[in-house]
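seq:
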Amino acid sequence: MHYPGRIIKAGEQDAAIVKALKAQLNDALGDTSLRLDPDDPNFGPRMKQTVKLFQSRNVDPVGRPLKQDGEVGSITWSVLFGSGAVPASEEADAPLLARVIQTAAAEEARQVREEPKNSNCGPEVDEYLRRAGVTPGLSWCCAFVYWCFDEAAKGMGQTNPMVRTAGCLDHWRRAPAKGAKRILKHEAIDNPGLVKPGMVFIMDHGGGLGHTGLVEKVSGGLLTTIEGNTDASRTREGGGVYRLTRKIGEINKGFIDYSDA
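struct:
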């Protein structure tokens, strides 16, 4: 059964979805003492506790614990019904965005790192920042994204549609004026099918600080990303260009889509 494009939780009104979930939970848990009545169309407290139990006993496709909230979002749904039951995407909606991803992947393959460590400097890092119009030594995750867009656009002989900025939240504010579409956090969590390769994710850490990177692919409610100024800890002040896996719910601001810009 395919993910319905919204989080399923207590009070769900679609009887067919509730019944399908109960049958799948019964099969997955295999404990007759925990059995739910698959003919009962109500998502009540007992079903919520059963979902929490399932979440406590399972991990997501990359081995991380499921969030034990008693709600069935895209990741829990994919573990219950299989990753093919949740929207997945490995291709960008526009040739430029495909080229942007190729450009970012090439930098990740080169293992670009800060020189010296923890300096926000280095031959490649300095160029990312210069291309975005700022001086070396600043946080550079957004500058990396801009550089990837700029290199891709130049390679295709077209104008770079992205806002020229090294500020993540500045990019979020100004992107619509450049013809980009914004997808809000709650929209993406409800329907992962809205998020496509080549989109830019934006995270807001408060106090004017943020983090950003590129979506390479989407599968089972998880994102494969390519990011600058990060590392395996997924911090906003790491030391290089890395390919990471993130849950869509980690992206607390949203996504910017330049496919029609």
